[in-house]
Design goal:
Elements: E1 3-9, H1 16-28, E2 33-36, H2 47-57, H3 65-76, H4 85-94, H5 97-104, E3 109-114, E4 117-122, H6 138-146, E5 152-155, E6 163-167, E7 170-174, E8 187-196, E9 199-209, H7 212-222, H8 230-239, H9 243-261, H10 281-290
Helix pairs in contact: 1-2, 8-9, 9-10
Bound molecules: manganese (II) ion (MN).
Manganese (II) ion binds at residues 11, 39, 64-66, 123, 157.
């Protein structure tokens, strides 16, 4: 009788503090294997810490759209002067050469087999790191499962709460968001999948506490607030109970950008950067003024 416990962790977004707690919890639960579904880095400026843990624990690691931004920025070096873009450049610069080379080699999807149980894992969808498989998108979920060879399709990227269901007699599971979920305050979610005697036997949605005050201190120490305070306020807001503020801020930014320029994206953007919404400084700073009461990091106070 073979019993295998697999921790599946998606969308850490540089939150090494949360990742440490997840790994502790997984070890306590006697997990045998670790799978990482992408977006390990980018959003919080602790990318190297995060990747050293990921690399220590697993070789079943995918890239997400957030890794793809670093990979393509490395080639293109877009010279966009926007304040918002300083975050991407900061986090790209922060990453060690070795970690950058490491993320370049990660696949966007992978086929795995445990005791005869076949899994197809992906960040966004089997097709791309950017495509979103929301639970409400029945057509897309049907498309990816009707001819699926594997027993399960497992992914992340949308930052929905963890969900799973059977579609076309296949297990379909979104593993949620470990690092910057807007649904929990100071808590990280991940999945422990149990395979028993050649069958998926149990799916355990895990929720572990992490120290958001420590993240605050680490953000201040990182130096990123000298570049831009707004982006960190949105990210920190998402994990500290202001997820709705972040959502509203970005929604308004999109609308103003469309009204002002008639488009959201840069003309010279290629590849993944065609999806990169880069806001003009007047929009970025104007909304920062509007939402300043909900911001943790104030300019001039750092
Ligand atoms: Mn993603």
């Amino acid at each position: 009788m073979i019993k295998i416990k697999i921790a599946i962790i998606s969308d850490i977004h540089g939150n090494s503090v949360a990742l440490k707690e997840i790994l502790n919890d997984a070890e306590k639960n006697k997990v045998d294997e670790y799978i990482f579904l992408g977006d390990q880095v980018n959003d919080l400026p602790f990318g190297n810490e995060t990747l050293s843990l990921v690399r220590k624990y697993s070789d079943k690691v995918l890239k997400g759209n957030k890794e793809q931004y670093f990979i393509e920025y490395d080639e293109e070096k877009y010279d966009w002067k926007n304040i918002q873009f300083k975050n991407t450049i900061f986090m790209y610069n922060e990453l060690s050469k070795d970690n950058l080379e490491y993320i370049k080699k990660l696949p966007h999807a992978m086929k795995l087999e445990y005791d005869g149980v076949k899994l197809l894992i992906a960040h966004g969808s089997p097709k791309s790191v950017e495509e979103q498989l929301h639970q409400s998108n029945r057509e897309l979920l049907n498309k990816y499962t009707e001819n699926l060879e594997e027993d399960a399709l497992i992914f992340g990227h949308t930052h929905e709460k963890i969900w799973h269901e059977k579609i076309n007699n296949k297990l379909v599971m979104n593993c949620g968001c470990s690092g910057v979920s807007p649904y929990y305050i100071g808590q990280a979610e991940y999945v422990i999948l149990e395979i028993n005697n050649g069958k998926i036997d149990n799916i355990d949605y895990r929720l572990v506490d992490f120290d958001i005050e420590l993240i605050k201190e680490k953000i201040i120490k990182s130096g990123i607030l000298n570049e831009d305070t707004v982006f960190m306020n949105l990210t920190y807001g998402a994990i500290s109970g202001h997820g709705m503020m972040r959502y509203k801020f970005l929604h308004e930014a999109r609308q103003i950008m469309l009204e002002k320029n008639g488009k959201l994206y840069r003309d010279n953007a290629k590849g993944i950067f065609q999806y990169f919404k880069l806001y003009d400084d007047d929009i970025w700073l104007g909304l920062a003024e509007k939402y300043k009461d909900e911001f943790t990091f104030k300019k001039g106070e750092i």
